[in-house]
Amino acid sequence: MNQSSFFNLKSHPDKFLIDHLRNVGLFCKNTIQSKKINSNIFNLNDEILANFSFITGVSHDFGKGTINFQNYINEKDEKRKSSLKNNPETRHGLLSSLFTYFVIKEYLKDLKFEFLPMLGYFAVKKHHGNLGDVTNEILDLDDKNVEILNRQINSLCLEELKLIYLELLPNIDIIKFISTYKSIIKEIKSNRRTFSDHLQNEKSIQGDAPGLQYYLLTQLFYSILLNSDKLDASGIQEIDRNNAIPLDLVDNYRIIKGYDKPKNKMDIIRNEIYSDVIGELKTLSLDNNIYSLNVPTGTGKTLTVLSFSLKLRDKIINERNFMPKIIYSLPFLSIIDQNFEVFEDVFKKVQGYTPTTDILLKHHHLSDIFYETNENVDYDTSESLLLIEGWNSEIIVTTFIQLFHSLISNKNRSLRKFHNIINSIVILDEVQSIPHEYWLLFKEVISLFSKCFNTYFIFVTATQPLIFDESKKEIVELVTNKKYYFNKFDRIELIPNLQPLLLNNFKEIIRSDVEENKDNNFLIVLNTINSSKSVYQYLESLKITGIKLYYLSTNITPCQRIDRINDIRNNKARKIIVSTQLIEAGVDIDVDTVYRDFSTMDSINQVSGRCNRNYSEGKKGLVKLFILKDENKEYYRYIYSPFLIDKTKEVLKEAPERINENYFLTLSNNYFKKIKDSGSDDVSNKILSFVQKLEFEQLYKNFKLIQEDYYKIDVFIELDYFAKAVWNQYKVIKELKNPIERKNEFLKIKKDFYEYVISIPKNKAPKPENETGIAYVSIEELKDRYDLETGFIPGSGGTLLF
């Protein structure tokens, strides 16, 4: 504790208020000054941004200077302390936000951005919670809360607060605040309607689109304040940025692996694409912020885009004088681990060691909670979690959920890393997974974010959605002649069968094909867990010799899925894989024949990328598409939007009966054009209206990157005796009385715990335990509730989806 002889007020049990306010204020100011922000877009300048951030930092805990809060923070008896915490007069957010509003108005009197004090009020008010709708936060200034504020003002430890702010904000008169706070409340309340109208009428810098500038500013200030507050409270020192990643890292890796010496046709094409993309850097203008790498599946996009990003990073350092992070984002957990291992291997092979977490970080809900640097600092679990969730690394491999819910969210935990996306290179791999109803939303947010915050986005896919229009130069293609590469491929043939077929008849077709083509590997992708289990069990009953049979779906535990995917990739035996659509995008497997239950065009294209992926000479893979049905309806109706299915049928009916791979780009373009031309922007426009009006709670309720039409609960599967030990640890942790200790102890086992957790529709799952709140299948119950091959055995009735 950095005690100063005149100060006694505390912000935390082990920290003086003046030290915390000073540290947070400087942390906020240093953070925003370290960013390259086009402040002119906001009609501001860099000095105002820095001063605003400093003010929010040194004002955010002003309300802790009351007698009630000091009694609470110094109380040793836990029972008494809990009672004091629940006293409304102990809370400090609303009083601190009023003070922040006052200070910003005093410091920035001549500011043209008239509602900036309101943003300060809002950010500080919610720095211990999630953002709400901004106008509702003003309504909190009702008679009841004003009476509490009156009592808090009367209980301020005024003499010490005057000394604190004489040092931190020497031009601010606290006595003036105390004498005018009631008029400040009236001013904020009277401005509510004007502010709301102003937000609604604000136009984007891009024309007639909704103005999102206030939204981005709010997220920026809120994120920086959250991060600064949490790191200082935890005592963690700021992590120094690391510029030790060579721009030729991937080039050297490719030499070590022999990729620079092509052995076959596929290698030649991969090298051509790699050279073309890297060659674009010579003439690339950094005034363009949005790029596309749109090439066929299996052509080495992962290494190519990593190499391009490292070189782009170096170019930005030299030409724009800031050092971007690289954020590599993917839609599916099944490929995050796979691609992270590739990145890790690049460092190991070239530099001879595993990169520390400040260089390369994997972040999703199943990740290890362990953070390390080369500075030999030991971070405990809670400190590691703070650093991981703040994306304190140079290269972050993460999910679409983590990324987009940090850009479009109201959640405290998600938004804390918003400022670390600024000035980054953001790679969106398998970008076709973004739901079409969000195209306009993402276009508007990404466009303005990239311009305001000097952030570069790279869309990576074999099937490019029309979020940005290449013909209008909204996005720059990194492969100058992508048609050339799509036309070079003749690996597969797609055969659509558009007449509905019962599942039992489909099984016979598979049996005949497997028996006739004795050297072929097969992948069978179904739309529901029920149909996939039925086909798997049928094939198992045939007892085909010389075959390794695999089953994959979300119905089996994550640890089993990973083990099976690794075995599929490494096992040279003949194989048949039965899966739901989780296998489609990015999973690096190669089979001769794919059977696919009918789905959307982008999904069909993706699963086709698992067929003859490595371009075996002298033969062509087959992708056979069927419309399968049960007694009630087609299986695709359980999964996909009717709108997208209709567009898929339209493009397939317009295509040849047997479709060669060099036609796939045309298929994809036709499909996305039909979606663009006849799709609705209603969902995006609705959410954009919430964004524009700073209605964060409505935004959270309406924006769901993954839509689920039924309620799921988690089920822990006690698959083996290690799982049993993990479950027993979990039960002990749940009994801990101290919530912080309970959280920290769970974080230590979190990764192992979720390796055994699957999500099941509530009406199919066991009843959750009262003690733990999670459903549980014990090792003794496995034979009745969990099949070791096909996974969870549900209750009666209905269709299990993937």
Automatic annotation (TrEMBL):
Domain HD Cas3-type: from-to ranges: 10-231
Keywords associated with the record: Antiviral defense, ATP-binding, Helicase, Hydrolase, Metal-binding, Nuclease, Nucleotide-binding
Domain Helicase C-terminal, first and last residues per copy: 502-663
Pfam families: Cas3-like_C_2, DEAD
GO BP terms in the entry: defense response to virus
InterPro entries named among the record's database cross-references: Cas3-like_dom, CRISPR-assoc_Cas3_HD, CRISPR-assoc_Cas3_HD_sf, DEAD/DEAH_box_helicase_dom, Helicase_ATP-bd, Helicase_C-like, Helicase_Cas3_CRISPR-ass_core, P-loop_NTPase
Start and end residues of each Helicase ATP-binding domain: 282-482
Keyword Nucleotide-binding carried by entry: yes
Presence of the UniProt keyword Nuclease in the record: yes
Gene Ontology molecular function: ATP binding; catalytic activity, acting on DNA; helicase activity; hydrolase activity; metal ion binding; nuclease activity; nucleic acid binding
Protein family membership: In the N-terminal section; belongs to the CRISPR-associated nuclease Cas3-HD family.
Protein name: CRISPR-associated helicase, Cas3 family
Lineage per the UniProt record: Archaea, Methanobacteriati, Methanobacteriota, Stenosarchaea group, Methanomicrobia
